[in-house]
Design a protein that fits this description.
Number of helices of chain A: 7
Number of strands of chain A: 2
Radius of gyration of chain A: 17 Å
Helix content of chain A: 40-55%
Oligomer: homodimer
CATH class of chain A: Mainly Alpha
CATH architecture of chain A: Orthogonal Bundle
Distance between the termini of chain A: 19 Å
Number of domains of chain A: 1
CATH superfamily of chain A: Winged helix-like DNA-binding domain superfamily/Winged helix DNA-binding domain
Strand content of chain A: under 5%
Strand order of the largest sheet of chain A: 1-2
Shape of chain A: elongated
Largest sheet of chain A: 2 strands, antiparallel
Order of helices and strands of chain A: HHHEEHHHH
Chain lengths: 144, 144
DNA sequence: CTTAAATAGGATAAAAATGTCCGAAATAAC
DNA sequence: GTTATTTCGGACATTTTTATCCTATTTAAG
């Protein structure tokens, strides 16, 4: 469904959010360990999220990544997916046609429209706070 | 959502079904042209579908690909997707966890469960006949 | 039997995604 | 100021996906 990069990006964001909730800044090393991802590759993805202003980074000793507390509940999964994978998951035709709309539908246009819309709705209405709280309470997991 | 291979496989199957409906066998060359796909790559995918007994092939002059008429309505999209991309689209965790179930859910387990189930239901309940008839009537398109 | 047309399948190539390495820059602590 | 720590960013490497090429095999037609 998502690229590996996007999976790592989502998990990293949730981990950062869960810690920022307690005012704790976390390092790349810690993030990669806690979400079980390759460190250097994760660094690239975090850079991307920083450039998209979804997370903040602080260089140097005692630096790391964080999200402003007030912002945590306003960041939607869709923003993370969009920053990393783009919008092809919403926009694109299920069978890869360049043009695919009601006037010129691919064979599965209608069937996919529903599913894509639900996926879009879900991603646009799920925010980092919900997900971070479940991690903090132990109701959900980022690895194994 | 699907791999290119799977997109080509679905489109090719629909094109073959639409022609088999009229008792016409079609060649690789014709298929690739009509679904706008690279010929040699499409050949590999068709071989795969033949090995999975979803379509039949006939070698030699006047050969090509076809689907038994009675079988067209019984072939579900899910069978084609399964033959090419495997079942990761149904089974896999949305965030790539090796283990992700109700007891040990990833942060988006519940949200994805619904969407994956709807996708699965749709693929398991959409058959080649429906899709082929729309192509024949001009209600849907395989290219451009 | 010969020829032309077609799929089968192995080997190879190109492109994209994933992953690694290393030096530069920034920052806190001493 | 020096040092240790940490992100940034460019270059490179590996793996997977996508795509191509070429030969063998099969089959209908003449």
């Amino acid at each position: 469904m998502f690229s590996k990069a996007c999976e790592y990006g989502i998990k990293a964001s949730i981990y950062i959010a869960a810690n920022s909730y307690d005012g704790v800044r976390v390092s790349l090393k810690e993030i990669a360990k806690e979400i079980n991802s390759p460190e250097a590759f994760t660094a690239k993805i975090l850079q991307d999220l920083v450039r998209n202003k979804l997370i903040n980074s602080v260089k140097g000793a005692y630096g790391g990544f964080e999200i402003e507390k007030e912002k945590i509940s306003s960041i939607k999964l869709s923003q993370i997916v969009n920053a990393i994978d783009g919008d092809s998951i919403y926009q694109g035709c299920g069978l890869g046609l360049d043009v695919c709309d009601a006037n010129h539908p691919c064979p599965v246009h209608d069937q996919f429209k529903n599913i894509r819309n639900e996926l879009r709705y879900m991603l646009e209405h799920t925010n980092l706070e919900q997900l971070a709280l479940d991690i903090k309470s132990g109701a959900s997991f980022l690895k194994i």
